[in-house]
Amino acid sequence: MARGTIAGQIAWSIMGTRMKLYDEHMPAPNPRKVRIFLAEKGIEVPRERVAMMKREHKAPEFLKKNSLGQVPVLELDDGTHISESVAICRYLEALHPTPALFGRDAREMAMVEMWMRRAEFRLWAPMGQVWINDDPRTAIVNPNQFPEYGARNRKVVAHAMKWLDGELADGRPWLAGQSYSMADIVLLCGIDFAKFVNMDMPEEATHLRAWHARVSARPSAAA
Amino acid sequence: MARGTIAGQIAWSIMGTRMKLYDEHMPAPNPRKVRIFLAEKGIEVPRERVAMMKREHKAPEFLKKNSLGQVPVLELDDGTHISESVAICRYLEALHPTPALFGRDAREMAMVEMWMRRAEFRLWAPMGQVWINDDPRTAIVNPNQFPEYGARNRKVVAHAMKWLDGELADGRPWLAGQSYSMADIVLLCGIDFAKFVNMDMPEEATHLRAWHARVSARPSAAA
Question: pTM to 2 decimals?
Answer without folding.
Answer: 0.92
